[in-house]
Amino acid sequence: MMESIYNLDIDQLEEYFLSHNCKKFHADQLFSWLYQKRINSYNKVTNIKKDILDELAKDYSLKKLELVKVEKDVDVNKYLFKLYDSEYIEAVLMRHDYGNSICVSSQVGCNMGCKFCESGRRKKVRNLNTYEMVLQILQVEEDIKERISHVVVMGIGEPFDNYDNVIRFIKIINHPKGLQIGSRHITISTCGIIPKIEEFMNFNYQVNLAISLHAPNNELRDKLMPINKVYPLSELMQVLKKYLKKTNRRLTFEYILLDGINDQQQHAQELANLIKGMNAYVNLIPYNDTENLEFNRSKTIQIMKFYDILKKNKVNVTIRREFGSKISAACGQLRSKEESL
Ligand code: SAH
What we know:
The chain has helices spanning 10-19, 25-35, 50-59, 130-144, 163-174, 194-201, 218-224, 227-230, 233-247, 265-275, 300-312, 333-339, and strands at residues 3-4, 60-61, 66-72, 76-82, 88-96, 99-104, 107-108, 126-127, 150-153, 186-190, 208-212, 251-257, 280-286, 316-319. The strands form three sheets. Strands 3-4-5-6-9-10-11-12-13-14 form a ten-stranded mixed β-sheet, with helices on one face. Strands 1-2 form a two-stranded parallel sheet. Strand 3 (66-72) and strand 4 form a beta hairpin. By secondary structure, it is an alpha/beta fold. It folds into two domains: 3-61, DNA polymerase, domain 1 (Orthogonal Bundle); 66-340, TIM Barrel (Alpha-Beta Barrel). The protein is elongated. Residues 334-341 have low confidence and may be disordered. Residues 112, 114, 116-118, 154, 158, 189-191, 212, 254, 256, 285, 287-288, 290, 330-331 line the site of S-adenosyl-L-homocysteine. S-adenosyl-L-homocysteine (SAH) is lined by residues 112, 114, 116-118, 154, 158, 189-191, 212, 254, 256, 285, 287-288, 290, 330-331.
């Protein structure tokens, strides 16, 4: 199969042109054709010589993903794409007052096995290639005919289990001739793969990191998230403190509230103690009910109590605005519906 042109970051394109005895500034030019003018054929390019364009066309494909389904609601669209190997992935567009944000998937399936998560019901089949992430954005923008200003890598998959492709994806979407999405508007969410958090500290972009925490102590986190057995909470917190010191970036803790499991007042207090003094904020997530009967959404009153305790302890906290519970927009839900058809 021919490699996709949307796999290449600007450095790789520069190398390509240099190795074909061309000037490297063609890389910038080609980026604008791809990401700003959105060409669907190399014939449209007017400022690069025909013979090198013919070479490019032989080496790199401009093919898009197959968009198989879009569900639209008031402030959320959900996209189902079919990949070259007949696997499906999802992307979700959310409309905020500050702009359009997209939730991008990073793998087909996921190996992290979080007990409450729909995506994890299917083991990882493969990592997404960079182009398969880039095209989620490009094609959703084409569908809505508007720009997307914010990107969260919080769809199906564990981005830090697909580190190199995700980093290349960030470089492409952030580039001034690429999709021009500001690094402060990009958030990567991980369940806490420590070696990759360490690597990410040295990645020179001001990208936000979100940590799926979901439990304030080791014992409970072990039960909910198998990854905690490999990278336990105390070590995770240590590395995050180092991360904050080094990067000055924003850190978010995601915490899904599960009825009767991690939503008690003692958990809120424990959470406040755990993150005390850290420059971070907590995003409380009302659980999107799934077919998994073991877990239910916390009662609203419990969510409010949890929130109040964090506030009283001077924790920066928000409750996630909800999108798409009507159209199953929580991770993995559209895909799993499609596959059970
Ligand atoms: N693997 C990464 C990114 C994908 S999951 C991570 O763990 O962060 C993105 C977020 O959605 C995670 O915080 C995950 O725990 C959460 N999530 C999973 N299932 C959910 C559900 N049914 N309702 C609400 N949030 C859910």
